[in-house]
Amino acid sequence: MNTLGKVLIPVGILAVAAGISAVLMATKKKPEIQPTPPKATLVQTITANTQNQVFRVQTQGTVEPLRETMLIPEVSGQVVATSPAFQAGGFFEKGDILIEVDPSNYESHVAQAEFNLAQARLKLEQERARGDQARKEWHSLSKGEPPPLVARTPQMQTEEASVKWSEQALGKARLDLERTRIRAPYAGMVREKRADVGQYVSPGSALGTIFAIDWAEVRLPLSTEDLAYVDLPLSYRGESSAARTPVILSARIAGQRFAWPAEIVRTEGTIDPANRMLYAVARIENPYGRGSDASRPPLQMGQFVEAEIAGRTADNVVVLPRQVLRGTNRVLVVDKKTNELRTRMVEVLKTDPGTVVIGGGLEPGELICTTALEFVVEGMKVELYSDKPSSRIEKEAGKLADADAEKPAKHGGSL
After folding, report:
1. Distance in angstroms (rounded) separating the CA atoms of residues 49 and 317
2. Which structural domain, as residue segments, surrounds residue 240?
3. Tell me, what CATH number does 380's domain have?
4. Quick one: 303 and 235 in the same domain?
5. What are the residues whose beta carbons fall under 8 Å from the beta carbon of 173, sequence distance 6 or more?
């Protein structure tokens, strides 16, 4: 074979192969493109049901006494005795003697005042006798009424005034003597003790602080929005409201939560400029009483409590978890027929940390999405959590389980 043949044969083979490849490429069928259906998102739902809802407003405050008094003596002297109850936390009843100041000087003042009164009365009787004698002598010598000086009328008036002054002086002396015994003006408890036996006290010095225990009060801050849900005894000029709004006070003490019933008796009538709140005052009866629950501790002054105020009632509303709310007034509704998400505008009556009360926009029986979705497209397909056993996830897991079960059998048959 010559050199030309050696060159042309490989070239021809390559040309034929190229032609065949071109024909095959031109005649081959294109693969069919099948669209992949979008995967449904797994969500949880809750059924919307209508009910009657009593609005409850949550707030908090600190327990304070209804009446609190600082003990200040009106006389001076040395403290000679104190009541065993006169100590911080001590209970006492109305009229109990808490502190006694040395009464010696005031007893002598009473005795002196009694002596002065006796002398004044004696002088008055003497002047009356002289006056009667002067009138008799005048009538025996002349006709008509005697002049005032002759009848000793000014002298008797002076003595009558002296008797009245002596009576007042005796009354004051006896009052000062009584004031040496400082009595409790009401049943209460001692908050602070500042005086003890042997201490010299004078008018104006503080001996201690006490407070009444028949009632206690709690100032409860309310926003202007809260006023839409509760009925409060508002203050109007010339009017007194007898309305009472029930409220439950609660506190956690020693790891347990206890509750006390109370009533809102008034509002303070002004908006606090610091926090723009209106304060309602709740009153609790007998806060230190044991009550029906023997295990409940007393409601002590200064205790921080949470309050739940019972308010108005709303009919035919839907109460849902707070998490269903998207924005301020939107929820996601699942179409039962197509399992598609729809955005729905609703009428929000009230929101709490855990719930939202919806007054309109939902029908009973509708499914509300409770799953927090990062991206939401109107009409997107979802799969309900209640259908999970027949869902795509379970089916795929079942296929994988079957495949794993077949592997040992195939391996064993090859041995």
Report:
1. 8
2. 212-314
3. 2.40.420.20
4. yes
5. 106, 109, 110, 112, 113
At 127, which amino acid appears?
A: E
Q: Which residues contact 267 (CB under 8 A, 6 or more apart)?
A: 232, 233, 234, 235, 278, 279, 280, 281
Percent of the chain residues past pLDDT 70, beyond the cut:
86
Query: Is residue 89 situated within a structural domain?
Result: yes
Judge contact between 48 and 366, C-beta under 8 A.
yes
Structure tokens at 149: 């000086």
The Cα–Cα gap between 343 and 397 comes to 32
Report yes or no: 186 and 212 within 8 Å, Cβ to Cβ: yes
For residue 6, tell me if it sits in a domain. Answer: no
Q: What average pLDDT does this structure show over 271-297?
A: 89
Verify that 277 and 170 share a domain, yes or no.
no
Cβ-count burial of 348 within 10 angstroms (0-12 exposed, 13-18 middle, 19+ buried)?
middle
- The Cα 10–Cα 5 span in angstroms is 9
Q: Which two tokens stand for residue 262?
A: 């109370």
Q: What does the pLDDT look like over 89-112, one tens digit per residue?
A: 999 999 999 999 999 999 999 999
Residue 86: C-alpha distances to residues 97, 178, 208, 214, 318 (Å): 9, 19, 9, 18, 57
Q: Among 194, 211, 228, where does a domain finish?
A: 211
Number of domains in the chain: 4
Amino acid, res. 60: Q
Structure tokens at 222: 């309310």
Structure-block tokens of residue 327: 């924005």
299 in the same domain as 224: yes
pLDDT digits (tens, 9 = 90+) for 139-181: 887 777 888 887 888 888 999 999 999 999 999 999 999 999 9
Q: Give pLDDT tens digits for 139-150.
A: 887 777 888 887
Single pTM value for the model: 0.69
Mean pLDDT of the 4-32 span: 69
Are 67 and 212 spatial neighbours (Cβ–Cβ below 8 Å)? yes
If asked whether residues 203 and 87 sit together in one domain, one would say yes
What residue type is assigned to position 63 of the chain? Answer: V
Whether residue 185 contacts residue 121, with contact meaning beta carbons closer than 8 Å, is answered with no
Structure tokens at 260: 């006390």
Whole-angstrom Cα Rg for the chain: 48
SS3 percent helix, strand, coil of the chain, rounded to 5, is 30, 35, 35
What is the tally of helices (H) and strands (E) in the chain? 5, 22
